Amino acid sequence: MAFPALTAFYGALLALLFVGLSAWVVAGRVGDDALHGDGGHEGLAKRIRAHGNFAEYVPFALLLIGLYEAGGGSTGLVRGLLIALLVARLLHPIGMFAPKNAPTQFVCRGGGILATFGVLAVAAVALLLR
Predict the structure, then answer these.
(1) Global pTM?
(2) DSSP 3-state assignment of 45?
(3) Which of these, 13, 8, 129, lies nearest to 65 by C-alpha position?
(4) Which terminus of the chain, N or C, has less C-beta within 10 A?
């Protein structure tokens, strides 16, 4: 197995984004005086879900892509999946704060999660076909 260098690089970028989302949640908790849960604050609840959604999907996607890369998979596919994942995870929290039914909500939040699902599905199929 080769070292999955591309996955490691993008994994590091995604880890920094996760730290940023974590700090965003902490700032919301401090600002809303809600040490546990969301304290009934809709904005804080959205921050918490954006952070949680990231934590739920990104590690599994990185694992699948990293396994594909380490097994000698196509560098172009690996890079494409990682870029799509990074963009998707940047867009999703923006969409969480867009007004209801606004184009930004559909493009950023909806597009972000659909792209994340696509990355997971393509990575899984690519691994199965290896």
Answers:
(1) 0.94
(2) helix
(3) 8
(4) N
User: Residues 116, 56: contact at Cβ < 8 Å?
Assistant: no
Question: What single letter denotes the amino acid at residue 64?
Answer: L
Residue type, 90: L
Task: Indicate the Cα dihedral angle 117, 55, 7, 115, nearest 10°.
Answer: 20
pLDDT in tens, 8-62: 999 999 999 999 999 999 999 999 999 899 999 999 999 999 999 999 999 999 9
| Positive/negative CA dihedral, 9, 12, 21, 125 | positive
The tokens for 50 are 């954006």
